[in-house]
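Extended Data, panel c. Modelled sequence:
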Amino acid sequence: MIRLTQAYLALAALTALFVGLGMLVMPAAFYGSYGIDPTLSPSLASELRSPGVLLTTIGLFFAYGVFTPQWRNLALWAAAIFYLGYATARTLSLALDGIPSTGLLAAGAFELTLGLAAAVLLLAQRRTATA
């Protein structure tokens, strides 16, 4: 179970780091792939770049959980909350704003998958601890 949790956290970390650094370092290319042009205004660029730091930071925390046993469970909880939160926000936006680009729909599906995988791992740990 430990190896599976580490593998999951590694995937969660790489995903958050890839997305976060893309948002932060090259927002025009990153968001352009979704049909969003952050060069339209400095305010838009700032608003779109700022979550990149959050994603990069949380990705580093997930990675820390891979290598630090005493932080692994907290990193797993954070991943579940983080990815399920993103999936929930995308679902709400879908209902309120309409259908986004295919890339954003795929991102939402992947975030939901990552969030549910973390929840399953947490439930499995709970069952193992009470057995």
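DSSP finds five helices and no strands in the chain. This feature is highlighted in the accompanying rendering.
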